Amino acid sequence: KYSAYGGVFFFAILSAERKTHNKIKGCDLMNSLPDTMKALVVEGVNQLTYKDVPVPKIKADEVLVKVKACGICGSDIPRAKSGGVHFYPIIVGHEFSGEIAAIGDEVKNAAVGQRVTVAPLVPCFDCENCYKGNPAMCLHYSFIGSRQDGAMAQYVAVPAKNIVPIADNVSFEHAACIEPITVAIHGVERAGAIDSGKSAIVYGCGTIGILTMQCLKAKGLERVYVIDIDDHKLALAKELGAYETLNSLKTDIPAYFAERGKVDYVYETAGVNMLQAQVISLAKKGGSVVYIGTAHRDVTIPAKTFEQILRGELHVTGSWQSFSAPFPGHEWIAAAEYLQSGKVKVDKIITHKFPLSAGMKAFDTLTDKESRALKVMYTMD
User: Fold this and answer.
1) pLDDT value for 29
2) Of 194, 235, 297, 359, which sits 20 to 30 A from 33 (CA to CA)?
């Protein structure tokens, strides 16, 4: 049997006979795969083409994953719509799950038919930061769906060390949410030790914000406030366990927490420059402020607000990606466990599903404010 949580590669003991069988089966299956597959190919600005492309050939240390579900990340939007790619043509998509269809000759931690998700970072494992155990800081990395072809396709080739098995009771659609869950876990833990009985604010109620709230709850925090300007998203956050939800268009947030008391941990997930300055004033003395959302414009911090960092000796830090050592990291073990146990729920976060042939319609839905979209996903078969 395969264990979803047994170690770095989450792979339980297999007999030599079973390994040999799967190795042969993998080679045979590779030979029996079609020569072409359907894929969404970014060929230019706002040009996403549904077309036939060759099925990827795997290297000796890679596996071929038959994709079952692939979510659209906010970072995929500029890649598909605004020219934010490293090259053309490219297949994007890094939040995905599927079944292993074939394995390379040197692969020992995988089996054909295994249900997996995949950590998308491909570190060099040979730079200073990789040696220090910080793969997310790699100086010479690749990234599935960004610097190499990704998973908005029927098949994708990935390094075997990147696979993360998923439990049988986790659907492929839910498993495609493991990557954003790991982003939330990594961000939560950037604050240091999370102590029960303390309080937190999550500013921003998108996919990462709601997942951050749930991960804080999973770690034992009861008082997790969620702030946004969308009442529909706030209602979902409340349903999924938020202690209290606040609409910042209707509530003076600094005044609210000045009156009721500031919090121990503040997480900014919206990537709004005004909020990125404001959140500093919401943390208690000795508290932590973690930036998960990306800044799209200059962030100006008033001198009075900056003074609170000094006088309050605040721990202010950023959070980047979701990886640690041993690669891909404990975040991936935890995300798989949270999903399997039901501590983190994604049913209502996945708001829209499309076949791959829908192409740009799925992206348009995600960027349409009237659609109330959170996680938009391509589902195969």
Assistant:
1) 54
2) 359
* Residue 53 token pair: 């492309």
How many whole angstroms separate alpha carbon 130 and alpha carbon 310? 32
Structure tokens at 305: 């607000």
Please, which residues bridge with residue 352 across strands? 376
Max distance between CA atoms of the chain, in angstroms, equals 68
127-163 confidence digits (pLDDT tens): 999 999 999 999 999 999 999 999 999 999 999 999 9
The residue among 159, 230, 219, 154 whose CA lies nearest residue 186 is: 219
| Amino acid making up residue 229 | I
| Strand-strand pairing, 95-103 and 62-71 | antiparallel
Task: Retrieve residue 204's tokens.
Answer: 């921003």
The phi, psi pair for 28, rounded to 5°, reads -60, -40
d(CA 66, CA 52): 15
pLDDT in tens, 208-247: 999 999 999 999 999 999 999 999 999 999 999 999 999 9
**C-alpha to C-alpha distance for 188 and 85, rounded to whole angstroms:** 29
* Residues 10-31 pLDDT 10s: 433 333 333 433 444 444 455 6
In the chain, the percentage of residues whose pLDDT exceeds 70 is: 92
Segments of 233-328 assigned E as strands: 244-247, 263-268, 283-291, 315-318
The amino acid that residue 127 corresponds to is: C
pLDDT for 296 equals 84
Compute the distance between CA of residue 54 and CA of residue 193 in angstroms, rounded to an integer: 47
Neighbours of 261 (CB within 10 A): 8
Amino acid found at 18: R
Contact, 91 vs 152, CB < 8 A? yes
Helix (H) or strand (E) holding 255, with range, is helix 253-260
Q: What is the pLDDT of residue 128?
A: 97
| Cα–Cα distance measured from residue 219 to residue 195, given in angstroms and rounded to the nearest whole number | 8
